[in-house]
Amino acid sequence: MSDLFWLTDAQMARLAPFFPKSHGKPRVDDKRVLSGIIFIVRNVLRWRDAPTAYGPHKTLYSRWRRWSAKGIFARMMAGLAAEHGEENTVMIGARTARMNRS
Protein backbone atom coordinates (compact mmCIF):
# COMPACT_ATOMS: atom_id res chain seq x y z
CA MET A 1 0.00 0.00 0.00
CA SER A 2 1.66 3.15 -1.18
CA ASP A 3 -0.98 5.57 0.07
CA LEU A 4 0.13 5.80 3.68
CA PHE A 5 -1.63 8.24 5.98
CA TRP A 6 0.42 10.77 7.96
CA LEU A 7 -0.93 13.32 10.41
CA THR A 8 0.31 16.84 9.69
CA ASP A 9 2.24 18.91 12.23
CA ALA A 10 -0.84 21.14 12.61
CA GLN A 11 -3.04 18.12 13.34
CA MET A 12 -0.53 16.81 15.88
CA ALA A 13 -0.48 20.21 17.58
CA ARG A 14 -4.28 20.05 17.98
CA LEU A 15 -4.11 16.50 19.40
CA ALA A 16 -1.10 17.00 21.71
CA PRO A 17 -3.07 18.55 24.62
CA PHE A 18 -5.00 15.27 24.91
CA PHE A 19 -1.89 13.08 25.21
CA PRO A 20 -1.17 11.67 28.66
CA LYS A 21 2.03 12.79 30.36
CA SER A 22 4.98 10.50 29.79
CA HIS A 23 6.23 8.85 32.98
CA GLY A 24 9.75 7.45 32.88
CA LYS A 25 11.17 6.78 29.44
CA PRO A 26 9.85 8.84 26.50
CA ARG A 27 7.13 7.33 24.28
CA VAL A 28 7.79 6.11 20.78
CA ASP A 29 7.14 8.83 18.15
CA ASP A 30 3.51 9.88 18.67
CA LYS A 31 3.05 11.08 15.08
CA ARG A 32 4.21 7.77 13.60
CA VAL A 33 2.14 5.65 15.99
CA LEU A 34 -1.08 7.68 15.75
CA SER A 35 -0.80 7.87 11.96
CA GLY A 36 -0.41 4.08 11.91
CA ILE A 37 -3.41 3.54 14.18
CA ILE A 38 -5.56 5.77 11.97
CA PHE A 39 -4.32 3.94 8.86
CA ILE A 40 -5.22 0.55 10.35
CA VAL A 41 -8.69 1.68 11.47
CA ARG A 42 -9.51 3.50 8.21
CA ASN A 43 -8.48 0.53 6.09
CA VAL A 44 -10.01 -2.10 8.39
CA LEU A 45 -6.73 -4.02 8.61
CA ARG A 46 -5.39 -6.44 11.18
CA TRP A 47 -2.68 -4.95 13.39
CA ARG A 48 -0.10 -7.36 12.01
CA ASP A 49 -0.81 -6.03 8.49
CA ALA A 50 0.37 -2.52 9.38
CA PRO A 51 2.94 -1.17 6.91
CA THR A 52 6.46 -1.19 8.37
CA ALA A 53 6.69 2.60 7.94
CA TYR A 54 4.54 2.93 11.07
CA GLY A 55 6.85 0.78 13.17
CA PRO A 56 6.17 -2.56 14.86
CA HIS A 57 2.52 -3.61 14.79
CA LYS A 58 2.75 -4.55 18.47
CA THR A 59 3.59 -0.93 19.30
CA LEU A 60 0.55 0.32 17.39
CA TYR A 61 -1.74 -2.19 19.07
CA SER A 62 -0.31 -1.57 22.54
CA ARG A 63 -0.78 2.19 22.25
CA TRP A 64 -4.30 1.79 20.89
CA ARG A 65 -5.24 -0.63 23.67
CA ARG A 66 -3.71 1.43 26.51
CA TRP A 67 -5.07 4.77 25.35
CA SER A 68 -8.50 3.28 24.59
CA ALA A 69 -8.72 1.76 28.08
CA LYS A 70 -7.79 5.14 29.60
CA GLY A 71 -10.33 7.01 27.47
CA ILE A 72 -7.66 9.08 25.70
CA PHE A 73 -9.12 8.61 22.21
CA ALA A 74 -12.66 9.32 23.45
CA ARG A 75 -11.45 12.57 25.06
CA MET A 76 -9.67 13.52 21.82
CA MET A 77 -12.83 13.04 19.79
CA ALA A 78 -15.04 14.82 22.32
CA GLY A 79 -12.56 17.69 22.64
CA LEU A 80 -12.24 18.17 18.90
CA ALA A 81 -16.01 18.01 18.46
CA ALA A 82 -16.56 20.52 21.29
CA GLU A 83 -14.28 22.99 19.48
CA HIS A 84 -16.94 23.10 16.77
CA GLY A 85 -19.93 23.34 19.10
CA GLU A 86 -20.91 19.67 18.89
CA GLU A 87 -21.23 18.02 22.28
CA ASN A 88 -22.96 14.70 21.69
CA THR A 89 -22.06 13.27 18.29
CA VAL A 90 -18.65 12.55 16.86
CA MET A 91 -18.46 11.32 13.26
CA ILE A 92 -15.49 9.41 11.95
CA GLY A 93 -15.89 8.65 8.27
CA ALA A 94 -19.22 6.87 7.92
CA ARG A 95 -19.41 5.81 11.56
CA THR A 96 -21.09 7.76 14.35
CA ALA A 97 -20.30 7.45 18.03
CA ARG A 98 -22.54 8.85 20.75
CA MET A 99 -20.69 10.43 23.67
CA ASN A 100 -22.46 10.34 27.03
CA ARG A 101 -22.08 13.61 28.90
CA SER A 102 -23.01 13.66 32.57
Question: What's the total count of β strands?
Answer: 2
Distance between the termini: 42 Å
Radius of gyration: 14 Å
Estimate the global geometry from the Cα principal axes. Answer: globular
Q: Outline the low-pLDDT stretches.
A: 94-102
Strand coverage percent: 5-15%
Largest sheet: 2 strands, antiparallel
**Biggest sheet, strands in spatial order?**
1-2
Question: Helices and strands: which structural class?
Answer: mainly alpha
Number of helices: 4
H/E order of the elements?
A: HHHHEE
Give the rounded overall mean pLDDT: 84
Report a brief summary of the structure.
With 102 residues, the chain is mainly alpha-helical. It has four helices and two strands; from the N terminus they run ααααββ. Helix content is 43%, strand content 8%.
Describe the fold and architecture:
The protein has helices at 9-15, 30-42, 57-69, 72-82, and strands at 89-92, 95-98. Helices cover 43% and strands 8% of the residues. The protein has a two-stranded antiparallel sheet with strand order 1-2. The chain has four helices and two strands; from the N terminus they run H-H-H-H-E-E. A hairpin with a 2-residue loop joins strand 1 and strand 2 (95-98). The chain has one domain (9-98). With 102 residues, the chain is mainly α.
